[in-house]
Each structure stands twice: as structure tokens, then as C-alpha cells.
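Why do we bother with holo predictions? Because pocket geometry can differ from the apo form. Keep that in mind while you read this record for 1-deoxynojirimycin.
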Amino acid sequence: MKDLGQVDLHPNNFGPDFQWGVSTAAYQIEGAHDIDGKGLSIWDVFTSRRGKVKNNQHGQVACDFYNCFENDIRYVRDLNIPNFRFSVSWPRIMPTGRYPVNQPGIDYYNRVIDFCLECGIEPWLTLYHWDLPQALELKGGWTNREIIDWFSDYTELCVKSFGDRVKNWMVMNEPSVFTGAGYFLGIHAPGKTGLKNFLPAIHHVTLSTSAAGRILKNILPEAKVGTTFSCSHIEPNTSSSRDLAAAKRVDALLNRTFIEPVLGLGYPMEDLPVLRRLEKYIKAGDEALMPFDFDFIGLQNYTREIVKSSFFTPYVWASLVKAEKRNVPITEMKWEVYPPSIYHIIKKFNAYPQIRKIIITENGAAFTDELKDAEVRDIERTDYIRENLKYVLKAKDEGCKVDGYFVWTLTDNFEWAEGYHPRFGLIYVDFETQERVIKHSGLWYKSFLKQKTR
Ligand code: NOJ
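The structure, written out:
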């Protein structure tokens, strides 16, 4: 086993097939919220409710990617990044979430895809990055089992519209976050709370994920089809049996609930007993429909969590020990800077024999960036990415099936309930003028990727 000092961070050492990229999401960058026939999404509605997002900010303009995409995709090319991940906004192409189609929305994504290809960049398309059509939310959104059909129709439309040129697909983005924050805690759109919303959402997202996987593969047998999961390395606060058990429950909730049914292992009910209540929503025949053999699994990691047992948190009986209280380096999101997390996560998921290939579809950090003399010297972000990459390479050197790394994200953008304050971009955005400045981290990534010769 290599220690980190022996890891030689050069792109060639990741192998010729390793995919390098950068990730984005429609609502966080596009703006153009009511342009060319787009319908309302749950994020349009959620952000219009006072007090839901810091400073009542919203994505109505965001980075204006809808109008500036050529400019921004040129940046991707100029940074030597060969793969660009973006998502389709469902209500932009299906304003009510169902047929009829909004042709100008389809035309827009065709322009984005064509321009990527013109620039020599591979488009990687995410079907669902959290902006559900509001018309479907009014019918219960992810809590309504009919969503499996709605999502299947939407998937088929995307595949038939873009599948002649898009070779890499991801079905969902971080299901545990959009169901947990949006349907249990109520801190993300659509702002619903409680188990009565969370549990049906979990099951319908699971069934929709595999249904979409099957549609993609049936129509595009040659395509690379994946789906993404958020994951955090979990450690118990002490070695007490209570903390160990609490850590196991949190691990089941954050890292296993969504992936294991897809891998054919069912929900981790043994280790997280509250999931037994899912049985109410599971119908005869569902077990056979839950698994799907994805070509790759996208893992998205930012930090680790320290867990202790707690009597005050129902269902998981556990709480997180905040990084702020642990005297450790943190980001603007108050997440601990802990690069070994990505290594532990790769090792953990690598151990599932059902996973064919792992791609890190997001990793990055928000720091206070200062624009000074037309430069952003974001040393902390550069270090963060570099250190994380060393751990990815260490895992790869040890034989893990990890074959890609995408930075979150291209430009500073709308960070959901946190608004525009946390800046994650490789490129700084002045949201008043829409001016862009490549940060030092972006320049570092550019020169790093330039060294790739095979
Ligand atoms: C994960 C999400 O996919 C993305 O939308 C978000 O901005 C980043 N993490 C950072 O929080």
C-alpha cells in the first residue's frame, strides 16, 4: 500500500481511459426561468417563498448560462477539460412535466450538445438534478407512484432527442439529498416534511432510477448509463457501542439506502429499522424492478461526518458532531476539509461486486474567494482538489475500479438554500455583470490536464 507521499500526481498515472471533467446543474446556472415556454419548477416556486433561501435569492438569472453557454463551454475547452456534465431541466422541455413537448427547450439543449461536440468536449447528461416540474409536484411529486411513468416518458423524450449525440448518461443526482432535504427536512424544494413524504419518495425514486436505466439501455445499447449518489465517510465520535451503532444507522441512511436496492440488495432495513416502514409502499413485483445493472456509479463526495448517538433525533437516533465544534479546517459550507474521505468512500463502494465502474461525478469546495487585480488566488481550493486527487489515485493504484473525476463546478453558481454566497467554481462570476475570471484553481486544473499525453 502506498502512502500519500509516494503518490505521483500526474494525469497519465490515472490511466488512458480515466475521464476528466467538470459538473454543473441546470437550475444552478441556466437562469432564463420563464423564457421560451419553460414551465415552473419546484425551485422556481420554493425560491419565491420568503425565508427559504438565504437573502431570498433565486435562480431566475443565475449565471445566465442559457444565453452564455457558448462562452462558458469555450472556457471548458480552454481549461483542457474533455468532459462536461450538465443536466436537463425537465420543465424546460415538458412545461407541465408531461406531453406536449416544448420544442424551444429541446432546441436549446441541442445547441448546448452540438456546441460541446464542436469544441471537442463530450457532453455528460444528468436527467434529474432536482428541478421537478411544479405541475407534477401539485400531484404529489415524488410521493405519487405515478411519477415512475411521468419520469419514464421524460427519460424517453431525452433519449430520443439527444441520444444520437450524447453517449454518457446519469439518471439521478444525489437522491438521498433531494429526498432528505426536500421531502423530510423541508429545507429544499418542494419543502415537504416527515416520513409520510420521505418514505414514498425514496421508493418511487428507486423505481424511477431503474426504470430510466432500462429505457436508456433499450434505446441506446451502446451508451454508458450511470446514476449518481452523494456519500460521506462516516466515523463514530467515540468507540462506545452506542456511537458505533449510531454511525451504522447514519451510514445506512446517507450511503446505502438508495444504492443497495439498485444493486439488488434491497433497502438496508436491518441496519436502519425505520426503513421497514417502506413496506407500506412496496408492491408485489417491485423487488424485481428495483435493481438495474448500471455501467457506472457516480459518487459525489465532499467531506466526512462524525456521528454520535442522540435521543433527540427520531428514527436515526443519531446526530452529527459539527465540524465547527471539532476545531478542524472547514469550507464556507462548514464542511470539514478531509481529503482521506474520498479514499475511504472509493474503497467502500469498490467492495460491492455489483458495481462495474466508479466515477467521481462531483468533488470540490467553497471558500471565500477574493477578486483582486483580476485574479482569484484560491490556494485552499487548489490544495483541496490536489489532495483529493492524490487520494483518488491512491485508491486506483490499490486496484479500485475508479475511472473518472469531475470537479464541482465550472462557474460559481446558485448553491440551493445557501444562495450565491458559497462559491464552488473554478471560474469566478461577478453576478452583477456576469463577468468571469478563471481562478487559480482553474488555471491549476488546466495545466494539470495539459500534461496528459495518453
Ligand atoms: C451536490 C449537488 O449535486 C450540487 O448541486 C451542489 O451544488 C454541490 N453538491 C455542492 O453542495
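The two ends are 25 Å apart (CA to CA).
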